[in-house]
Amino acid sequence: MDQFAVKVFVRLRPSVLDPAGEATKSASIKLGAEGIKSLRIGKMIEVKIEGNGENEVREKINLLCDRLFANTVIEDYEYSLEKL
Amino acid sequence: MDNFTVGVVVFPGSNCDRDVSWALEGCLDIRTKYLWHESSDLSDVDAIVLPGGFSYGDYLRCGAIARFSPLINALDEFVKSGKRVLGICNGFQILTESGFLPGALTANKNLNFICDDVELDIISSKGGWFNNGGQKQTIKLPIAHGEGRYHCDSDTLKKLVDNELIALRYKNNPNGSSFDIAGITNEKGNVLGLMPHPERACDETIGGTDGLFTLKSLILK
User: Fold this and answer.
1) What pLDDT, on a 0 to 100 scale, did the predictor assign at position B221?
2) Whole-prediction pTM value?
3) Taking the domain A2-83, which CATH number applies?
4) Is A61 helix (H, G, I), strand (E, B) or coil?
5) Which end of chain A, N or C, is less surrounded by CB atoms within 10 Å?
6) Which of A45, A47, A74 is the mutation pick for testing B, counting most B CBs within 10 A?
7) Domain-by-domain residue ranges, chain A?
8) Which residue in chain B is spatially nearest to A19 when comparing CA positions?
9) Helix, strand or coil, per DSSP, at residue A20
10) pLDDT for B141
11) Would you state the pLDDT for residue B125?
12) For an interface test with A, which of B56, B58, B59, B61 has the most A Cβ atoms less than 10 Å from its Cβ?
């Protein structure tokens, strides 16, 4: 069995309003940061997972992302995978 | 009312389950039974309410974890049999997360947790959930949510409109919901999800009775 470290990034789809991102953008500008054009907040999920090779692990992660980690009505996801 | 029994689902973190049961039993004389989320035996209830609250602490997304409970797994057969399911607030979020209703509920536009009475237009009579004898086309119900902004893509919205699945719309949209949507039904009409709390509007002494019709309609066949 191989072990992999997976980092999943879940983001609101570009068409979905992100009020928390807007509030943080507003606070960033109040802090004095200049030049911020856009600020959106997502989630990062770290998973350590075993499987027989990368393909099998990708299948498992795809299932987790599609059915649990992200709500694909409003969110997109992508992930990186590193063999340990 | 005969032996008709409404199952009120209790998740860890539900906090409107007692209110729903109180309103059904005390105001409408409808028998209720609490259903623990680990149960998958729905054989002795005739309708189900998914109450408001913060199931599983709203971890990950509101309603996302509740979707995997044994009870929600058993709900598919229950819904297919035509029995009625009412999802209130967190219950609505669970119904969208688990695919019984389209769309999703996300953070309110202004990020506030909104606790207020709102006026709502009754849009569709599908399922008879708001049948009040034709006296009222606008009702007033309390809302209490931080993540009640209904969102769906334009194709889904068109389908909701074309098939008369939009049950309620806010008169003055408080949270930024698409198309002012406060509640929707499935195509058959036996599943209703809404952000407002009908169980908190069942007695004049606490501010109104516009929620009675919706709870009473649980016993419709």
Assistant:
1) 76
2) 0.92
3) 3.30.1280.10
4) helix
5) N
6) A74
7) 2-83
8) B109
9) helix
10) 97
11) 86
12) B61
Asked whether the ipTM of the predicted complex exceeds the cut of 0.90, the reply is: no
DSSP conformational letter for A60: H
3-state secondary structure chain B: CCCCEEEEEECCCECCHHHHHHHHHHHHCCEEEEEECCCCCCCCCCEEEECCECHHHHCCCCCCCHHHCHHHHHHHHHHHCCCEEEEECHHHHHHHHCCCCCCEEECCCCCCCEEEEEEEEECCCHHHCCCCCCCCCEEEEEEEECCCEEECCHHHHHHHHHCCCEEEEECCCCCCCHHHEEEEECCCCCEEEECCCHHHCCEHHHCECCCHHHHHHHHCC
**A73 CB contacts (<8 Å, ≥6 apart)?**
B96, B102, B103, B104, B151, B152, B153
Q: Which two tokens stand for residue B81?
A: 């049999």
Tens of pLDDT, residue by residue over B103-153, are 999 999 998 999 999 999 999 989 999 988 777 899 999 999 999 999 999
Q: Are strands B47-50 and B84-88 parallel, antiparallel or unpaired?
A: parallel
Segment B69-90 shows an average pLDDT of 96
Beta-sheet strand order (sheet of B5-10)? B31-36, B5-10, B47-50, B84-88, B191-194, B181-185, B166-170, B114-122, B138-145
Burial A56-73 (b: 16+ CB within 10 A, else e): ebeeebeebbeebbbbeb
Contact call for B151 and A74, based on CB within 8 A? yes
* Residues A54 and A43 sit within 8 Å (Cβ to Cβ): no
A63 touches chain B (CB under 8 A): no
Q: Say which residue the tokens 């992200």 belong to.
A: A70
Run of H or E residues at A38: none
